[in-house]
Amino acid sequence: MSDKRTDLSQLGEFGLIDKLTSGFTTHVSTTLKGVGDDAAVISVSKTEALLVSTDMLVEGIHFNLMYTPLMHLGYKAVVVNLSDIYAMNGTPQQITVSLAVSSRFPVEALEELYKGIQRACDFYKVDLVGGDTTSSLSGLMLSITAIGKAKKNEVVYRGGAKEFDLVVVSGDLGGAYMGLQVLEREKEVYKANPSIQPDLEGHDYLLERQLKPEARKDVVAILKELEVQPTSMIDISDGLASELMHI
């Protein structure tokens, strides 16, 4: 181990991933795409590919339980993973759920969390097929792996964009962020005076975008109906400007 110390902030998320995985090579011929896209792509037949994606949500980093209902959290945790499968022009089929939880959560709270997971599974027609549960000393952590499928010739990678391609964004941008700002504002008001009721009137759309987002399976369906296959696709939950640099 080197004596050199590099702060994580110097690299950022994607720089850190590149740093940690740059020395890895592919040993198995069925690995068509590993690190570096919204999902890994694994060959399962001459024409079919398996898509695999994992995302983790950590209390205090990705969500605040002061204003995030556990049912909404479970739903959102599934959706953010399914979104990565759709971003590869694929169809999600299964998920696994891994949970690290502290003793401050009663069983009933975890049942609420899993109600949200189940609702997402029912809406998007995916199956819960496994996972892991362990204890935590630092709050709630939720990691979900999504598994999907696609025809090999229909998988859309993030690196296929070419000069003069039209850049198209589905939906509108900034709604989830504005919803977060509303929730953070009301949190500070509550901390200053717990007797005051939150003022959320008129912000239903923004709050739903933050607390209960949806994966854009409709976009994949529309593209198939129009017989359009983009040169590149990417999930932009980390922001449009940063994601444009990856296509």
Written overview of the protein:
The protein is α+β, with helices and mostly antiparallel strands. It has a domain at 25-156: 60s Ribosomal Protein L30, Chain: A (2-Layer Sandwich), CATH 3.30.1330. Helix content is 35%, strand content 20%. The chain has seven helices and six strands. It has helices at residues 12-21, 70-86, 107-124, 175-192, 204-211, 217-226, 240-244; strands at residues 31-33, 40-43, 48-58, 91-101, 127-135, 141-151. Strands 1-2-3-6-4-5 form a six-stranded mixed β-sheet, covered by helices on one side. The longest helix has 18 residues, at 107-124. The mean pLDDT is 92.
Core attributes:
7 helices, globular, 60s Ribosomal Protein L30, Chain: A, single chain, 247 residues
Q: Report helical residue fraction.
A: 25-40%
CATH architecture of the domain at 25-156: 2-Layer Sandwich
Mean pLDDT: 92
Gyration radius, in Å: 20 Å
CATH class of the domain at 25-156: Alpha Beta
Number of helices: 7
The low-pLDDT segments are: none
Annotated CATH topology of the domain at 25-156: 60s Ribosomal Protein L30, Chain: A
Query: Describe the biggest sheet?
Result: 6 strands, mixed
Work out the number of β strands: 6
Shape: globular
Strand fraction equals 15-25%
Fourth CATH level, the homologous superfamily of the domain at 25-156: PurM-like, N-terminal domain
Question: Could you give a quick summary of the protein structure above?
Answer:
With 247 residues, the chain is of the alpha+beta class. It contains 7 helices and 6 strands; from the N terminus they run αβββαβαββαααα. The longest helix has 18 residues, at 107-124.
